[in-house]
Automatic annotation (TrEMBL):
Pfam name, any one: DUF475
Keyword set includes Endoplasmic reticulum: no
Keyword Transport: no
Keyword list, A-Z: Membrane, Transmembrane, Transmembrane helix
TM region(s), chain numbering: 12-32, 38-60, 81-106, 131-152, 201-219, 256-279, 300-318, 324-342
Protein name: Integral membrane protein, YkoY family
The organism's taxonomic lineage, starting at the top: Bacteria, Pseudomonadati, Pseudomonadota, Alphaproteobacteria, Rhodobacterales
Length: 352
């Protein structure tokens, strides 16, 4: 047995647990400074804890997809993603991204947006919520392409829902079939909206599709260039870029949804930041333990969860769907996939 399999769960969660202690301590300090009461302090402390749990539940599939990509990357690029990547994920998506939305939507400067977050949280939350439609259309389209890219694969020979996945893989040789499918879904869905909202949805969906295609093209170009210069091997800068955009798409829903629990940007950043550290720990554990190879249907469950998340993001442009339902749905699918994998492993062991 190698070192990776000997490591305990606590070893993998060490930095996540440290970030939890620090984050909740900051939450208590922030609560006391902003309210000056024990009740207010406990309320903010509790909100940060709930946001962390929400982020973890929403990000099970994110960790599995990250591990799926990381297992083919060199150790150097794995380390870079798990260090620099987590900094971008925590500070970029949980702090800079919400500020950037307000900067663009309200046409104000970054400092003004920061002041608004601190002194006018209600107005800040209103602007964020108004920006939900284009964000949901963009992120939903990107994630739908990610999920379909997994199923529309000629070389895919392991099928969880065999009757469906085997037929999908047969059509993978048709050039651009997943692109046509996503565009059709987006255009059909846009008919449920009216006026300016319909135009915003369509344009945002197209930008999401273009972003996915550009990341794929640019990623392949960068990795090819690195191979020719021997600066990196399989899964270099291009894969790193892909994972960062993927993480951003996963984060859209959590960041916007967090404003339903708190309008304080700093409370949201603490709560979601704690959750992001657990995603990093889960990703490392999945890669080092080879969990994806041990449980053959785990990836399938994650990509089905991504596909459902993409559809939910579309429907959230019409009605509010609680993030708890989204998180539990994704976690439930992954749990069923894990159970199916364990059953398959037992059958194989019994047959031998």
């Amino acid at each position: 047995m190698d070192y990776a399999t000997e490591k305990s769960l606590i070893s993998y969660l060490k930095w996540a647990l440290i970030s939890t202690v620090i984050g909740l301590a900051l939450a208590a300090l922030l609560g006391w400074q902003s309210t000056g009461t024990i009740g207010g302090t406990l309320t903010i402390f509790f909100i940060c804890a709930v946001l962390a749990v929400l982020e973890i539940s929403l990000s099970f599939d994110n960790a599995i997809v990250n591990a799926n990509k990381l297992k083919d990357m060199t150790p150097v690029w794995q380390h870079r993603f798990l260090t620099w990547g987590i900094i971008i994920a925590v500070f970029g998506m949980r702090i800079v991204f919400p500020l950037l939305i307000v900067v663009i939507a309200a046409n104000v400067g970054p400092w003004t947006a920061m002041v608004m977050a601190a002194t006018q949280p209600e107005e800040y939350a209103r602007i964020m919520n108004e920006a939900h439609l284009p964000i949901a259309a963009f992120g939903g389209t990107f994630l739908m392409m990610v999920a379909l890219g997994y199923f529309f694969d000629e070389e895919k020979d392991v099928h969880w829902i065999h009757w469906l996945e085997s037929r999908i893989s047969q059509y993978a040789s048709v050039k651009g079939v997943e692109i046509a499918f996503v565009l059709t879904v987006a255009l059909l869905f846009s008919r449920l909206l009216e006026g300016a909202e319909r135009d915003v949805f369509v344009y945002s969906a197209i930008y999401g599709l273009l972003t996915f295609l550009l990341v794929e093209v640019l990623g392949g170009f960068l990795d090819k260039s690195q191979e020719s210069t021997r600066a990196a091997a399989q899964g270099g800068l291009g894969a790193f870029l892909y994972l960062e955009v993927l993480d951003a798409s996963f984060s859209f829903d959590g960041v916007i949804g967090a404003f339903a629990l708190s309008q304080n940007l700093f409370v949201i950043a603490i709560g979601l930041g704690i959750g992001a550290m657990y995603v990093r720990s889960m990703t490392i554990m999945l890669v080092e333990r080879g969990t994806l190879a041990q449980y053959r249907y785990l990836e399938h469950g994650a990509f089905y969860a991504i596909l459902i998340l993409a559809v939910i993001m579309y429907f959230q442009t019409l009605v509010h769907i609680p993030e708890v339902i989204t998180g539990l749905g994704g976690a439930g699918l992954i749990g069923v996939a894990l159970w199916s994998s364990i059953r398959w492993n037992r059958r194989e062991a019994a047959a031998e």
